[in-house]
Design goal:
There is one protein chain. The protein is mainly alpha-helical and about 140 residues long. It has one domain. Helix content is about 65%, strand content about 0%. About 30% of the residues are buried.
Length: about 140
Amino acid sequence: MEVDVQSNMSRPFGVYVLMIFVLLQGLSGLAGGAGLVLDPTGESLQIPLNWLDDSPFNNFLIPGLILLIVLGLFPLVVLYGLWCKTSWSWFGALIVGAALIIWIAVEILVIGYHPQPPLQLIYGSAGLIILILVLLSSVRDYTKK
């Protein structure tokens, strides 16, 4: 793994914005995932267990683990990569954005759309923003060797 730690002055503005979104997703994924793993009934997060009636899950343990790892820990690893300008960080950020959009899409298909609170809209939008930021040429060029 090649790491090129450069001065903050060389980071494009889009990379800073991307890092903020990836950080917020990582922290949110850790909090939500840990909450579901520690309480698979969803009660502590005020998520009704009956939302899983038409899903392959009896409780929120497996979705919580996926949330914790894929949308919690992984974005924080990607954040590290972006900060250190690793060669894999661009692709990692692309995966974070795509994973978040896929997560929200599957969630809406399985449990339906829930406008209150508008978390699905917020996180779906965040995933789209991450993808847009990743596709900026300044962000792409930043992570090249």
